[in-house]
Structures are given as C-alpha cells and as structure tokens.
Design a protein that fits this description.
Belongs to the YfgM family. This is Ancillary SecYEG translocon subunit. It comes from Chitiniphilus shinanonensis. This protein is mainly alpha-helical and 209 residues long. It has 9 helices and no strands. The protein is elongated, with a radius of gyration of 30 Å. The termini are far apart. 31% of the residues are buried.
C-alpha cells in the first residue's frame, strides 16, 4: 500500500516520537500494572493474615477458664506472627488474666508488659497498666505498682487508676495518701460506675481512722 507524502511524513514523525518516548511510556505502563498487582496482592495477604489472626484469637476466647498454658501459647503465637494486629494485644490481655487466675503471676506480668510496650491503643495500654499494677501489688511490689500507674495515659481510666493507687498506698501504710486517692477516684469515676459505692466505703473506713 502506497502512502502519499503527507502520510509518509506523519509516519516518520510517529516513528521519531516512538523512538523518543514510546519505550518510556511502555515501561511506565508496565510499572503501573506491576504496582497495581502488588497492591492487590498486599491487600489479599493482609486479609489472609487478619483471618488467620482472628481464628487464633477466637480460639483464645473459647478457651477462657481453661488451660492457661494453652491460652498463653496462642497469645504468644499472635505476638510472634501478627504483632501488628489488634488481636495480639487483646490476646495477651486474655493470657495475662488466665495466668493470674492460675496463680502464675510472673507469666501474667510478662504478657501485660508486652501490651504496655507494643499496643498501638492507649486504652489497651492503660488497661494493661491497671492489671499489671494489681499483679505487682499481689507480688508485694507496691513501689513498682505505683510506678506502673504513673505511666497512665488515658483520662478514661483516671478514676480506676486513682482507686488502685489508693489501695497501693493503703498497703504501704499511707492512710492520708490513700484517702486523697479515693477522693480523686470518686471525683473522676462516672456516677453510675459499679465500683463507686465500694470506693466510698473504703474512704469512709479511712475517715474513721
């Protein structure tokens, strides 16, 4: 098929343009396609990982009240393979409770320390601090327990932190400090908090001393 002069010039211009830009554009298209496929693959991997972590966490929930060692093993698996997931910290909290209920306070302490150091959620870190301080108090470590409570971050836990601080100070023989802590707890706990009457009872008992 013969081309006229104008068509031949257009073909020549296209060939020149292709030699200058065509390979670049082809490479860009390939890179964009690879990026899209990688993005799709990453999300598929993330979904798969979340499903696996969810199954392990469900196993932990279903085992509450059972063998503390098995619960810890699953919690450790979450921490090892899915440490960035929300399941890992929650699994560690369950494992800490199971260990504490079994009287294995050192194991409980290790799980709670992990949550404080690794959770991305301030509320979970403070929940772990509260439980950790209680475990430390049970181990006759009141100063360590006070230090743990001193790291609390969330105002939502302020009332519970103050109450536990009062318990610790009372254990140390500091009745005046305990009274102030219980007063602070009463001022920061919600009026419908289930423990507010018990805090009042503890404060009333100290007022009579």
């Amino acid at each position: 098929m013969a081309f006229d002069l104008q068509e031949q010039e257009q073909i020549a211009d296209f060939k020149a343009w292709w030699n200058s830009w065509g390979k670049f554009l082809a490479t860009a298209v390939i890179l964009a396609l690879l990026g899209y496929l990688a993005w799709q693959g990453w999300h598929a991997y993330q979904k798969s990982q979340a499903e696996k972590a969810g199954l392990i966490y469900a196993r932990i929930e279903g085992a509450i009240g059972g063998d503390a060692a098995k619960i810890r093993a699953d919690a450790d698996l979450l921490k090892q393979d899915f440490s960035g997931s929300a399941y890992a910290s929650r699994g560690a909290l369950f494992a800490a409770k199971a260990s504490a209920d079994a009287g294995q306070l050192k194991e409980a302490e290790a799980q709670l320390n992990w949550v404080v150091a690794n959770s991305d959620e301030a509320d979970l870190r403070d929940a772990a601090r509260l439980r950790l301080a209680a475990v430390q108090l049970d181990q006759k470590q009141p100063d360590a327990a006070l230090k743990t409570l001193g790291g609390a971050e969330s105002t939502g836990f302020a009332g519970l932190v103050a109450e536990l601080r009062g318990d610790i100070l009372l254990d140390k023989g500091d009745s005046a400090g305990a009274r102030e802590a219980y007063k602070e707890a009463l001022s920061k706990l919600p009026k419908d908090a289930p423990n507010i009457q018990f805090v009042q009872v503890k404060l009333d008992a100290l007022q009579k001393v």
